[in-house]
Design a protein that fits this description.
By secondary structure, this protein is α+β, with helices and mostly antiparallel strands. The protein is built from four helices and nine strands; from the N terminus they run ββββαβββαααββ.
Amino acid sequence: MYTYEYPHPAVTTDIVIFTLRDQQLKLLLIKRRCEPFKGSWALPGGFVHLNEALEIAAKRELEEETGVTDVYLEQLFTYGNPDRDPRERVITVAYFALIASDKIEVRAATDAEAVGWFAMDEIPNLAFDHQTIVETARQRLSAKLDYSTIAFQFMPEQFTLSALQDVYETILQAEVDKRNFRKWVLALERIEETGEMQSSGAHRPAKLYRVKEPGKVEIIK
C-alpha cells in the first residue's frame, strides 16, 4: 500500500438535529463525557473510521451518543479552520436531520454524559465551532422551506393542514396566509387525505392528511 510521508488531518462528522416541540424549533445536544470541552454541550458527532462512508459514520455517532436511528440526514457544510479542534488538525463534515416529535426517544448512550433538547433562544455555549454549524443549519432549513418538501419531515403519521402551517410559521417566525398556504400545499400533491377527521373541542372537525412518501425530501421548484 502506498503511503504519504506528510501528516494527514483527521475527519469527523457532526449532526444538527431539529424537532418541533411545544410550538418551538428545538435542537438536540449532548453533554461531552471527555476532554476537550468535558462537561460542555455539543452537537452529536465523532471521528470517521478509515473504512466508513461519511453518512454511515454520522448515523453511527448519532446512535452511539443519543440512541436516535432512522432519520433523514442531509449534508450541510464542511468546516476546516486549522484551530477548530485543540487536539489536532480536524476537518468536520456537518449534517442536519429532522425528526417528528412523536418519534423521539432519545437517551444518553455510550459516548455522552447527558442529552437534551434546547429551544433556539436557549442554546448554551457550545464546544468547538458548533454554534456556527447550528446557525448555518437553521439558515439552510428556513431557505429549503420555499423550494422543497423538507418541512414534511417534522410531521407525524397523520396531521391537519393547520398543524403543517404551524411548522412553517414556527421555522420562519412569521405568519403565513391560511388560504394561500392550503392552496399551495395541496397543489404540490405530496400529501393525501386519510379519510379520517380530527375533533378539537367546539371547532369544526378537520381533515387528517399523511405524507405520500415519508422520509423523502423533494425539490419542488
